[in-house]
Design brief:
The chain is mainly α. It has twelve helices and no strands. It has two domains: 92 residues, Endonuclease Iii, domain 2, CATH 1.10.1670; 102 residues, Endonuclease III, domain 1, CATH 1.10.340.
Length: 214
Amino acid sequence: MKETTKEIYEKLLSRFGNASCELNFKNNFELIISVVLSARCTDKRVNIITKKLFLKYPTAQDLAQADQEDVEKMIFSCGFYKNKAKNIILLSKDIVTRFDGEVPSDYEDLISLSGVGRKTANVVTSVGFSLPAIAVDTHVFRVANRLGIAKAKTPLESEKILQREVDKDKWGRFHSLCVLFGRYVCKSRNPKCEECDFQHMCKYYKDLEKKGKK
Ligand code: SF4
């Protein structure tokens, strides 16, 4: 790991300590459904929704047989509810018919499930199965670009660079730290640069300074 990446990792670690996923889940089925629902939605909102959803549909078998309109009503407040309802039902059907009702641990199997993209597959690999994976969500993508760790145009490009830049045994933790840093400090709009340790290495901050906005 380069010295600057190491410095960033160590500082994030001392600030956010044992960062972990902020979604509530009891098993990998609940995790994968929660991650799908979290697209363009806050974890806080997803946790409110899933509390009732998993009471009514606790397993992949239950959700696979659910009425789509009922699911739409239950997840309405997380946005894109029609697509998400369709996807989590299809995803549950896939888990039941192809994997005996168990969420698979293999990355290629995960990504083959309906509605599961790279980010979701990586989060489940890392958080659910404790295997090395770097999920690049909107926070990781932004933070890695601003700090210059991964200057990338797409999440996939960012993921490939981060896999080279960050030690493999730290991939999962690095993701969680960047998510918290992006969520609470390096926000998309109005980042809290005044309370950030990385001003000296942040191009975004330097550009804001030049424009007289900091
Ligand atoms: S200085 Fe501001 S923009 Fe740069 S990493 Fe810190 S919070 Fe983000």
